[in-house]
Amino acid sequence: MRRMIPTSFSSKFQGVVSMNALRCYVSEFISTFFFVLAAVGSVMASRKLMAGDVSGPFSVLIPAIANAFALSSSVYISWNVSGGHVNPAVTFGMAVAGRISVPTALFYWTSQMIASVMACLVLKVTVVEQHVPIYKIAGEMTGFGASILEGVLAFVLVYTVFTANDPRRGLPLAVGPIFIGFVAGANVLAAGPFSGGSMNPACAFGSAMIYGSFKNQAVYWVGPLLGGATAALVYDNVVVPAEDDRGSSTGDAIDV
């Protein structure tokens, strides 16, 4: 006798592979591709402008500005489709908070990782005079310290995402992504010289994959994921407890 697949599992699977879900994955791919292309490309551009000098102030200022503008735009273009995560740490926080399902989060991660690798590959193929840069830890920092720093930065970023996405604030659509970009740029300015100010595991993974070195890669995964999860729990359960009639636009279309 053939065993029947549980209805709950079947319905969840159908939800994460529906046409609406696929649109969300494509949206995440496009927005993440654009962000990584600008974020990593800005580092290469700064090196070109400063003739390879990686210690000058513009080596941090240019990527910080690029991160702010690119993330604001990337979040905005996918805000009403996939929720504008653009970052596995944000997706992880949304999953921990129960705003999207775990299977959906895994598909989001896949889209984000592939997009990051493709963006870095484009940079490698087009800018032949430079290597694709990777995130590095400063000599005065330990891996543990860098992981904590990246976690704090991700906490601030994901907390801002949750705040911008809260419908009770009644913010216009364009305002939320702007503030998310602002905090990302500020974080890069603050931590760029120490840990690189990644906050985004997909961005760190894509550049490491194309460069060919995964040294200290755990720093850019463990810290941001824990920071993102903590931000989600603090916002939803401590600072702004959820209400019965509360809704969220992030991931609603595929919340299964």
UniProtKB/TrEMBL annotation:
Pfam families in the cross-refs: MIP
Coiled-coil regions listed in the entry: none
Keyword set includes Repeat: no
Bilayer disposition of the protein: Multi-pass membrane protein
InterPro entries: Aquaporin-like, Aquaporin_transptr, MIP, MIP_CS
Keywords, ordered alphabetically: Membrane, Transmembrane, Transmembrane helix, Transport
Compartment(s) where it occurs, according to its Swiss-Prot or TrEMBL record: Membrane
Key word S-adenosyl-L-methionine present: no
Signal sequence, renumbered to the chain: none
Membrane-crossing segments per the record: 29-46, 58-79, 144-164, 170-190
PANTHER family noted in UniProt: AQUAPORIN TIP5-1-RELATED, AQUAPORIN-8
Record family assignment: Belongs to the MIP/aquaporin (TC 1.A.8) family.
Name of the protein described by the UniProt record: Probable aquaporin TIP5-1
Originating organism: Camelina sativa
Gene, per the UniProt record: LOC104790951
